[in-house]
Design a protein that fits this description.
This protein has 9 helices and 7 strands, in the order βααβαβαβαβββαααα. The protein is α/β, with parallel strands linked by helices and 209 residues long.
Length: 209
Amino acid sequence: MQPFTTLTGLVAPLDRVNVDTDQIIPKQFLKTIKRTGLREGLFLDWRIRRDGTPDPDFFMNQPRYREAVILLTRDNFGCGSSREHAPWALLDQGFRCVIAPSFADIFYNNCFQNGILPVVLKANEVQSLFQDVATTSAYRLTVDLSSQTVKTPQGASYRFDVDPFRKDCLLNGLDAIGLSLRHESTITAYEQTRRAEAPWLFMDRTARG
């Protein structure tokens, strides 16, 4: 997993509350277990009209937001089912950070497991950022995980909270597998000891008779 330390980049606005995971990535894209290619389904029902044409009002269809790496949105983002494809699709599109007043718990947890930083700011701070994005071309923010701050071009700084364990994992690029591999030598030593103590557990089934 790619570490997250400091991110400076373009901000895209999604001014909607209660965005559920089926809206982030519709169910027909859940057949794959690959983490790539899911950008094709990201916000599909909002991005593409029923006649198959792009909706020019949706942010992903506007050239000014195509290189965005920070998504700014509203309350309860990522509600609904627990599908991990939702953060996969966001990451495949290039988003490394999502800023909102609140997140659904499972989605929030899944973000950390996939290298995305979900940042919770106060509602008035989020509102101020929406106003800045709307009135400023190529609006950029700097998100610093070490100092737990979001810094604006105007010099404002908003602080956010993050669990110390999750912070350490993101800073070091550690998912569940990476955390396990930190203890690889201990795991290997246990396996060797266990093999010596109970060799029959490691025998081939055909050899057991």
